[in-house]
Amino acid sequence: MTAGSRELVLERVRAGLGSVESELKSDYANSPRLYTQRGSMNVNQKLALMVERLREYDAAVVECRESALDESIAAEIAGSGRRTLAAPEGLPRQWLASSVEWRIDHDLTNQQIEQVEGVVTASFCGIAESGTIVLHHSLTEGRRVLTLLPDWHLCVLRASQVVETLPEYFARCAEPPPLATYISGPSATADIEMTRIKGVHGPRFLSVLVVRDDGSERA
Amino acid sequence: MVAAMRTSLFITCYNDTLFPETGRAVVRLLERLGVEVEFRPAQTCCGQMHANTGFRGEAFSQAKQFVKLYADAESVVIPSSSCAAMIRDQYPSLIDDLGNETLRCEFKGLLPRVHELSEFLIDKLGVEDVGAYFPHRVTYHASCHGLRALRLGDRPFRLLKNVRGLDLASLDNLDRCCGFGGTFSVKNAEVSSAMLTAKLQDVRSTRAEFCTALDNSCLMHLGGALHREFAPMRTIHMAEILASTEELPAEGLA
Amino acid sequence: MNHPVRESHPVLDPRTAAPFPEAALPVLRNAQLRKNVAHATDVIQGKRNRLVAEKTDWLELRDAASALRAHVLEHLAEYLEQFEQRCTASGGVVHWASDGAEARAIILALLREENATEVIKIKTMTSVEIQLNPALEQAGIRAIETDLAELILQLGEDEPSHVVVPALHVNRSQVREIFRRRMGLEDLQDDPQALTAAARTYLRAKFLSVPTAIGGANFLIAETGGVSVVESEGNGRMCLTLPRTMITLAGIEKVVPRYRDLEVMLQVLARSATGERMNPYTSIWTGVTPGDGPQRFHVVLLDNGRSAMLGREKERQTLKCIRCGACMNTCPVYRQTGGHAYGSVYPGPIGAILTPQLMKLEHAETLPYASSLCGACYDVCPVKINIPEVLIELRAQVTDRERESERRFFDPIYLGMRMANGAFANAGRFKAAQRMARIALWPFTGRDGWIHKLPGVGGRWTMTRDLRGLPRETFREWWEKRGKERAR
Questions:
Q1: A91, B60, C104, C163: which could join C135 in a potential S-S bond, CB 3.0 to 4.6 Å?
Q2: Which residues of C are less than 8 Å from A184 in CB distance?
């Protein structure tokens, strides 16, 4: 069926373009990029913006010091009223608060994940300008299904992971990740009369724990 | 700062035939400002109507005619932003396609000397107060070619602001098209009329006596509906407002 | 739950759709729909404008986005090959479809291999372009749309009218009616919250049980063989994560060179499409990842007329489109007519240039004229497609076809244009034409100097507008007279 279609399509594409004299690599390199690559905010400003943008999306945001991280996670979990949580395989053991039942993701089935009330993960990066959290689904961030099915996602984001602009996130990727999910607030739709409704599919509740270095001041 | 200079008036085919009072006002206004106005009678049409309707071949000869006619003019002033936009936006590729090197050079030299009326007044003459008197409530409609193709910006407002006695009412949704669109007004008459109705809602709510613009094409469309509705509002080209003085008010004012 | 079986998409098939002026008529008489469309487009436009004003490097981003898209098209063959190679190396299977029929056949064959009886779908206009759902239904495979808007349309047996917000012509009480009927929820309230909750419950069961998904792609990343899906609701994530098999259908123009190029595309897309700094969820995946997500992944690359557009200088820019919908949100024509009047899955300004090029021109001849050439679309297009320029180019093509056809002798506008051209040839002819026009219109001119009714095509003007009668003296006659007076 497609035998020959590949050649046909490529031939048509090439025929359409005629002989392109220019070279792909240099053309690509010469493509204009005068947009803002680097932000100008300092750490405190970036964090303040990140928090502001997260709150605009109705994500619950809590800030804590690095030295208080484990207790803060425990407090968030206790405060959430949830009893059963999932965790990625590589989540630091000290984050597994004892007040709840944990399902560690050693190949959990979808049905098992469907039973938990929430999930706790780390993250790769936070982009302050848009309040975006980027997951690369490493061992501390978990498989994609883990942050998709549970109704509550508690995400740990360190100050050092926060950048101001989207280009800065890409600059941080030494290699393009095979898997990535960018989260900019809980799921939403505006399909009915443009009224934004949150929580269609995906976690309806997002909590972000922003972790400052010890000794740094709040903005 | 008024420089003594000469300019050649390109009246445009539809102003010539349907709105000669606009042309008369342009002449009166420019002469009052010390500009010597000439009119080359060989002129007919810039070709916009044909080009925009798909009659590209026909537009070629009209474009060529325009360039040849004005190649040696000191400047050309056009009281119609859509025609000026035709020359600025579409002539380059039309003239290019004709493949005539002489013509291309002539056009290249001519293009910077072609001005829409408000551009001519503000950029070329450096005038914002043209000494006009028009004691009426007026709203300004920004025609799309003037707004987007020519990027006239605040030029029309700077001119209107200095007209004595004029009460300028701002128009909501200023950048929304009135629905004329040339042959669109006839080929898609119903949609054009729906757009017109929407536009007139904003125009009427200004409670102005006059709706003005730099294009009689839009004004023909807006004014035609206002007249149909026995509305207490008329349309008038901005040239006629600017030409109006206490001694010599705009033509047709009761 | 009963899903309606539709034989075709009659409203959105350019081959059978009514010409635009005709198709617009019933919509213009539908006050509710016009209100819905105006409200929706006002909301998105307002948000978009606010965020664009806030983005201090918007113009530079737009330049970069436009240049990147143009660059990809210039080297499309190379980038497609690179994408195919990398995607395959990561465990994906790449298929090539020269047209819609072939794409449908490929997808059906894949579904038969899976013994699929149901598929869950992420909204993709490309699948509507190739009329996929009816083909699936005919093959006994139930296609379940999972985007809220697409679900509303599917259950309501309706058609999309906008590329980003496909059900914007439907209001909340209309949605409630549809859900009550089709989901059997008698007590359903009409507030959007309740409606959305109903959809969530209804679809969740499907996400967790249907093993095959079909979706589209916002971007295909050549450097990695990766695919990116941009969404708001999370149904996309459900479909591309939970099933066993994922099939991605994408037009060949969706390629971007490198992963980092998303830094440009996502910034302009989110602001243009939904007026957000970033949409809620963006997913990127590459081939197959053991243990995470679908273990079978297929990409169907669709030509269907796109390659032909590459060869045409002015029209090629049409392919830069990233389906943001900003053009239709700002279009004053779309505002009055909504999307269905365009008779194509691609409505609005982009539809007016894309549809005639994807289809044979004769199926969409009225679309290039469905515009007042106001240029608002070009101003907002994040990749700087000069839509008015392409519209004028397509109009020239339509007219050139008409020149060869007998019907031109019966087209008053054609005849009028030819006559006018003759009149413009020189001043002598023009003056004669002016005199003739004055004489011809005199009988229609009332005592107030205005014309209230004209015959024939002129009647299309006087349907809603008066026309001032031709003045007795043209400008050039006045000038000539003045010159003579001054000479004395």
A1: C104
A2: 276-282
B188 touches C: beta carbon within 8 Å: yes
Closest residue to C167, CB basis, from A130, A191, A202: A191
**pLDDT tens, position by position, A147-199:** 999 999 999 999 999 999 999 999 999 999 999 999 997 777 766 666 667 76
**Could you tell me if residue C37 is inside a domain?**
no
- The domain limits of chain B are 5-124, 137-243
Q: Which chains share 3+ C-beta pairs under 8 angstroms with A?
A: C
CATH architecture of A41-212: 3-Layer(aba) Sandwich (3.40)
The predicted model gives A111-140 an average pLDDT of 97
Chains that touch C (3 or more CB pairs under 8 A): A, B
* pLDDT tens per residue, range C206-232: 999 999 999 999 999 999 999 999 998
Work out the percent of chain B whose per-residue pLDDT is above 70.
Answer: 98
Smallest Cα distance from C419 to chain A, Å: 37
We report the CATH number of the domain holding residue C229 as 3.40.50.10420
In a domain, C193, yes or no: yes
Structural domain total, chain C: 2
Picking from B50, B90, B179, the nearest residue to C372 by CB comes out as: B179
pLDDT over 70 for what percent of chain C? Answer: 98
Nearest CA in chain C to A58: C280
pLDDT digits 0-9 by tens, B213-247: 999 999 999 999 999 999 999 999 999 999 999 99
Q: Which of C243, C272, C307 is the last residue of a domain?
A: C307
Residue C281 lies in a domain: yes
Q: Which CATH code for domain B137-243?
A: 3.40.50
Among B9, B13, B16, B147, most C C-beta atoms within 10 A, so best to mutate, is B16
pLDDT at C8 over 60: no
> Is the CB of C60 less than 8 angstroms away from the CB of A34?
yes
Do C266 and C154 sit in the same domain of this protein?
yes
Q: Is B5-124 CATH 3.40.50? A: yes
Q: Tell me how close the Cα of C326 comes to any Cα of chain A, in angstroms.
A: 15
Band (A2; pLDDT cuts 50, 70, 90): low
Nearest chain C alpha carbon to A13 = C307
Instruction: Give the range of the structural domain holding residue C74, as residue numbers without chain letter.
Output: 10-14+59-307
Residue C2 has a pLDDT of 43
Contact yes or no for A10 and C301 at CB 8 A: no
Report pTM.
0.95
Residues of A within 8 A of C193 (CB-CB) are 197
Q: Which amino acid is at C459?
A: G
Where does a domain end: C277, C307, C337?
C307
Gap from B19 CA to chain C (nearest CA, Å): 8
What residue segments make up the domains of chain A, in order of their start?
Answer: 41-212
For all residues of chain C together, what is the average pLDDT? 93
| Below-70 pLDDT ranges, chain B | 1-3, 254
